[in-house]
Structure formats: structure tokens, C-alpha cells
Amino acid sequence: MRMCSSAGADIREFAGPLRGPPLVPLLDAIEAGEKPVVAAIEGVALGGGFELALVCHYRIVHFKARLGLPEVTLGILPAAGGTQRLPRLIGIPAALELITTGRHISAQEALKLGIVDQVTEQNACELAVEFALRAVAKPLSSRRVSMLTTPCPPDLDALLEAVTMQVKRKARGVMAPLACIQAVRAAATMPYSKGIKRESELMATLFNSGQARALQYCFFAQRTAGKWTLPSGAQWNNSKPREIRSAAIIGLGTMGRGIVVSLARVGISVIAVESEKKLLETGKQMVIGMLERDAKRRGVSASLNLLKFTLSLQDLKDVDLVIEAVFEDMALKKRVFQELSKVCRPATLLCTNTSGLDVDALAGVTDRPHLVVGMHFFSPAHVMKLLEVVCGPRSSSETIATAMSLGKRMGKVSVAVGNCPGFVGNRMLKPYLDQATFLLEEGATPEQIDKALEDFGFAMGVFRMSDLAGLDVGWRVRKESGLIGPDVDPKNPPRRRQGRRYCPIPDMVCEQGRFGQKTGRGWYMYDKPGGTNAKPDPLIQNLLEMYRSRYGIQPRNISDQEIIERCLFALANEGFRILEDGIAARPEDIDVIYLFGYGFPRHGGGPMFYASMVGLERVLERLEHYHQAHPDVPHLEPSPLLKKLVACGSPPVQKWREHIKTMHSHL
Ligand SMILES: CC/C=C/CC(=O)SCCNC(=O)CCNC(=O)[C@H](O)C(C)(C)COP(=O)(O)OP(=O)(O)OC[C@H]1O[C@@H](n2cnc3c(N)ncnc32)[C@H](O)[C@@H]1OP(=O)(O)O
After folding, report:
1. Which residues form the 3-hydroxyacyl-CoA dehydrogenase NAD binding domain (predicted)?
2. Distance, CA 242 to ligand 1 centroid (Å)?
3. What CATH number did the domain enclosing 80 receive?
4. How many Cα atoms within 13 Å fall on the side-chain side of residue 318?
5. CA 48 – ligand 1 centroid, Å
């Protein structure tokens, strides 16, 4: 049997009723046949493709092929016998690991695990024919995997329990890996005929679940995000990116260091610039250490020869692209861009890693506004997968194509977004954070809010995330935007700014020098500065009590449901406004940003998909309810697009674009 490449079932078909003959009897018949069947695998054998290979009597694999059972990542399980045959072939621990993670493995690893019989650098099909001819005379009984006894460890229950705990810790609230564990248990404790029925029952609990819908949506959303398009007609498949061989990074702070590592490990020469000798030396040592650790983990040699460190911008005159990663200060950034304009050759692309400042204002101080684009990395930049590519009104399609393609080369999930304060991710963060702090005023605690969000599936609750990111950054932004400090009108009521509700508690926390993990104190307390073990702090509790009594606020019991609704519906509501404003082209782009940059649980699909799953009508009704209760919070006022979609019968996410197309695009 020649399997050039099989990515398994067509995932799009899972949205409707499955058609075609049932697969399991067909696969069982192949395995039971008297003629030897040899699978020749090239490319990939994933999901159903891998399950087909497992019923063959022998498996020959090209050395570049990849195999796996990724169903769990789609919210389902391998239900064509995969959970019953793989444990019989390679034992419970290895099968559990592959099935519960969905990890793809190389041909070499498959050989080591005993999944395949031979790995070849030649034509796998020709070798498989030779193999079949030699196999004709041999008995097949030991080659029928479903007939094998599952090699079982003596402490099976303890092993399954440990894996269950691990899965629950890593993927809180996710159903599919737990169902996979139960199916593998059946392979260990039941004959194949019963095990396959159990597999099918477990699949039935997952197949139409909201989690499966969300995870399958994420698969396609991630691929859709790469397909950027501009109102000019320029798009991903008609705009040629430039080839980038050399780059420069300005600023060796946390972000700059991560960007240097991301570039060097994909073979790009990097010149790193700092303003002072001591900062340069510290940054250099840290980058070298990061690259060495990264290379060791990947089993390759560190590409240190690609690095150059300098104090002089003059050294950048020949690079293909510069990424500025200096302090988040517009005046400083403008000075850097003016200087770069003078120093770099006219064709050099100038990028900024700003997390929210006006990219077009920076373009305006250069001699080449069409070659300026935002490349907003997320911290730590060598780990986080998200890259927002911020298209200014003057960025050329070639510039955007180059930034998107460079992101892909660095292994990032790149999303093109428009230029507005905070772009997509950080603009949406504001109403989300605001709701969390308003809930504190009204009676909740940081740990209660975090627990509700973490139970929902967020990697980290909003307060733990803020402690990790550093509270001083937002404090500085609030000072600069006149929300605190001498510019505030003294006649302003204390909990109002710029005509709307304002919660000063985050400022009070910062005034105490509590900047989060780095200072050992923030919304939580930590063992030491830089510690990561967050413990509730009675001082924060006192601060909240004093605050409420000072302003005469009677604390009330706040339910987890209210926390989730207010935080997440406010988040999605801003997403609708971003779509209206043309700052993101599609809801999928917003969801991908929140999945890869902000720890939104994949099994929730992202804020926009989640809103559609809850039901747009319900989201609208709850926002109207909360806005009525808090009329001084404009973010809770339902957006016109949300209302329009509800009026149109709440179409699925993939159809929202049809209702936005008349609106103006900033991409
Ligand atoms: C009946 C038995 C039931 C069995 C259950 C299953 O088989 S579930 C499916 C299990 N298979 C997978 O999960 C594989 C998913 N695909 C991948 O991991 C990758 O696409 C790949 C195969 C490793 C190829 O990666 P690469 O980076 O080379 O390409 P893309 O990811 O960009 O994909 C190219 C286009 O192909 C589409 N696509 C890929 N796999 C599937 C699939 N199984 N079903 C439907 N569509 C698939 C993908 O969406 C891309 O299409 P675009 O139109 O370009 O977006």
C-alpha cells in the first residue's frame, strides 16, 4: 500500500455528519487479510493515515516522513483503532504520551519506538514491494497488531493516575486527553473487540462537543491568519517579500535579547546595538547564554558567529532590516528613527517593536515611510509564538510581505494588524483589565478573579499575568496619558477620569513599590524578587478593605459567572469594535492573537469564537445588562457590529466578514 502522504481525515468534514462507509470494519478487514500488506510512507502519516498504516502488516518509512495521532489537538481521539493498536504495538507509556499530546514524530523515532520496520533514504514504495515479496512465505499472525497482547506495566493504575494528573495540570478543563487515557486503559484491560467499542463510545462524547468545534476552528484560524490582504488588492499570494540576510536590533533589554536569539537561530546575521558599554556587555553575555542553551536543547551548535555587538549606529549602514527595541518612549524612538534614516542605506527596512505607539508617526520622521512597519513581538520574544505585524497607512505591500515572511521564518504565528493605540492585542487588554479592577472595587479579590479565569482555561489569571509582565509599565503609560499626576483636574471625582469610571487601585499598588514578580511584591507576594510562587498577600486584602471603606463601597459576593462574563464579554466587545474600525481583517486574526499572545485557552477558540459559541444574542443581552448597571463604563456598551450581527441572525464567525466589508479598513 503506497501512502505518499496522508494528513488523515478532512477536518472540515467534522462540522457535518460523517459520510462514507464505516472505517473500522474496512481497516479490520485489511489487517485480517491473508496477503501481506506493506505500508510505504512518505511525507506524513497523521491521524486516520497513521491508523491505516497500523493495520498494515509491515511499515516502511522514508527518513523524512513524520507520523502521529494529532486528533487530541482537534478535541477528538483516534477512533479508527488508533487507541487500541498503538498501545499493543509499543506499550502503554509510549502510546499514552503520543496519543495524549498528539505530537508528530520523526521516522527515526518511530523506528526506535518499534512503530515501523525500516527507515529508508530511497524510494519507500520500491522497498515496500521488495519487503512484501519476501514476506509472502512468512506467517502473518504476529503482524496483526490488534491480536497482540498489550505490554502492560505492573503499576498500570498508578501510571494512568499520574498521566491523568499531569494532563489536568497542563490542560485544565480539556476533555479530549482524558478520554484518550480512558481509551488506552481499555487497550490494556480489554480484548480488541471490546476495546474498539469503548473507543467509539468515548469518541461519541467528544465529537460534537464545543471544545472539538473550538479546537478545529483554531487549526484553520491559525492558517487563515497568514493570508493577509490589503484594500489595495495586495495580499499574501501576490506580494513578494524581500530576502533578509542581515538584521540589526537596537536595544538589548528583555525584548531586544529575545529578538536577537530568534533571528540568529534561523541563520540571520545580527548586529546588536546598545547605548552604553555596560549594557552592551550584559546584553551580550545574556544573548550568548540564551543561544547556547537553545542550541543544546535542539542538539545543534550555537550560531554565535552570526552575532556582532556594537555601540555605534554607524555599523548598521549595510543591513537589510533594523528592528528598534528601545524603551517605550515616543520621543526616544523618533530620535532613533531619524538617526537610522541618515545611517542606513535607502533600501533598509525600518521596523519598530513598539507595543502600542503610533507606527505612522515613526514612519513620518524617516526618509522612507513606505519601508517602515511594526513588528510587535511578545515577551520573551524567543519563546512566544505571536508576532503582530503593524501596517501603517504608508507601509508598502513589499514591506508587509517581508515582515510577515520573516516572522514565519522565525517560527512565529504572524498576524497583520492596523495602526491604532495598542494595535489589536493590547487595545483589547484595556477593557479586560479594567473589568478585573472594577470587580476588585466591588468586592472580589485578585485570587478569586484569577481562579475564575484559570478555571476557564487561561494559562494565567489577569493579576498573575500582570505581576509577571511588571506593573510599572502600565503605571508609566497612565501617567503619560494624563490619567494620574499633575495634569489631572483636581475637580475630577476620585474614581472618574476623562469622563468615565476609573479605578486607581493599580496606581496605589505601584505607589508602594509593588511592581510584580521582579520586586517580590505585586498583586501577590513572592518568596523573593524574581520569585514565581504567587501567594495571596494580606496587605493587598487590607488595601482593598480600606479603599472600599474610604469610598463607601459595600463589598458584595461576586460569582465566577459574573467575573467571566464581564471580563470576556468586554474583551470580545472591543474585538467587535476593532473589526468595525478595520484594525483586524477577520475575527480569526483576533482569536489567533489571543491564543498565541495572551494565553486564551485553545479549547475556547479565542474571544471572538467564544462569543459566537456562547451565542451573540446572549452576549448582547449580558453586555446590555452590565452596561445598564455601570453606565459610566463605555466598554460595556454593546458595539454596533455585535448588534448588527445579532439582527442578521448571529451568523457563524467565518461569515462575519460579509457584514463588515462595507466598513473602512486600516490595514
Ligand atoms: C476517518 C478517520 C478519522 C481520523 C481522524 C483524523 O485523521 S483527524 C485529522 C488528523 N490530522 C491532522 O490533524 C493533520 C493536520 N495537518 C497538519 O498537521 C499540517 O497541515 C501538515 C499535514 C503537517 C502540513 O503542514 P504544512 O505546514 O506543510 O501545511 P499547512 O498546515 O499550511 O496545510 C496546508 C493546507 O492543508 C490544509 N490541511 C492540512 N491538513 C488538513 C486536514 N487533515 N484536513 C483538512 N485540511 C487540511 C490546511 O488547512 C492548509 O490549507 P489552506 O487552505 O492553505 O489553509
Report:
1. 247-419
2. 28
3. 3.90.226.10
4. 3
5. 12
391 CA → ligand 1 middle, Å: 29
Question: Do 410 and 510 fall into the same domain?
Answer: no
* Direct distance between the N- and C-terminal alpha carbons of the chain, in angstroms, rounded to an integer: 48
Handedness of CA 9, 11, 13, 18 (dihedral sign): positive
Into how many domains does the chain fold? 4
Q: Are residues 258 and 274 located together in one domain of the fold?
A: yes
Ligand 1 atom showing the smallest separation from residue 102 Cα: 13
> What's phi and psi for 53, nearest 5 deg?
-60, -35
As given in the structure block, the three cell numbers for residue 451 are 481562579
Nearest to 533 by CA among 468, 471, 453, 452: 468
Do residues 550 and 616 both lie within one domain? no
What does the alpha-carbon distance between residue 604 and residue 211 come to, in Å, rounded to a whole number?
Answer: 7
* End position of a domain, from candidates 208, 234, 256: 208
- Residues with Cβ within 6 A of ligand 1? 7-12, 23, 44, 46-48, 70-71, 74, 80, 220, 223
What DSSP letter does each residue of 513-566 carry, written as one string?
A: T--BGGGTBSSSB-SSTT----B--HHHHHHHHHHHHHTT-------HHHHHHH
Question: Is residue 389 helix, strand or coil?
Answer: strand
Residues with Cβ within 8 Å of 512's Cβ and at least 6 positions away in sequence, in order, are: 521
- The CATH number of the domain holding residue 492 is 1.10.1040.10
Which residues form the domain of 318? Answer: 246-420
Is 385 within 8 Å of 411 (Cβ atoms)?
yes
Phi-psi region of 30 (alpha: psi -120 to 50; beta: other; left: phi over 0): alpha
How far apart (Å, rounded) are the C-alpha atoms in residues 266 and 280?
A: 23
Query: CA angle, corner 86, sides to 145 and 187, nearest 5?
Result: 85
Q: Give residue 9 CA to ligand 1 midpoint distance, Å.
A: 8
Q: Flag whether 220 is in a domain.
A: no
pLDDT band at 1 (very low <50, low <70, confident <90, very high): low
Number of neighbouring beta carbons within 10 Å of residue 568: 23
Q: Which of 388, 420, 452 is the last residue of a domain?
A: 420
pLDDT tens digits for range 557-615:
999 999 999 999 999 999 999 999 999 999 999 999 999 999 999 999 999 999 999 99
d(CA 271, CA 322): 9
Pair (414, 474) in one structural domain? no
Pairing between β-strand 386-391 and β-strand 105-106 as defined by DSSP bridges: unpaired
Residues 145 and 7 in one domain: yes
Taking CA atoms only, the protein residue closest to ligand 1 atom 51 is 223
Residue 27 within any structural domain of the chain: yes
Is residue 662 over pLDDT 60? no
403 and 509 fall within a common domain = no
Cβ–Cβ < 8 Å for 576, 641 = yes
- As for the ipTM of the complex, it is 0.98
- Residue 55 in contact with residue 168, Cβ under 8 Å? no
Catalytic residues: 51, 71
- Are residues 573 and 546 part of one domain? no
Query: Residue 183 falls within a domain, yes or no?
Result: yes
Grouping H, G, I as helix, E, B as strand and the rest as coil, residue 242 is: coil
Pick the residue whose CA is nearest to atom 31 on ligand 1: 223
d(CA 495, CA 505): 10
Given the DSSP bridges, would you call strands 500-501 and 496-497 parallel, antiparallel or unpaired?
Answer: antiparallel
Query: Over 90: is that where the pLDDT of 34 sits?
Result: yes
Q: Which of 261, 255, 256 is nearest to 292 (CA)?
A: 261
Closest CA to 415 of 577, 593, 263: 593
297 and 368 in a single domain? The answer is yes
* Residue 544 backbone dihedrals phi, psi, to 5 degrees: -65, -40
Is 639 inside any structural domain? yes
Q: What is the DSSP letter of 655?
A: G
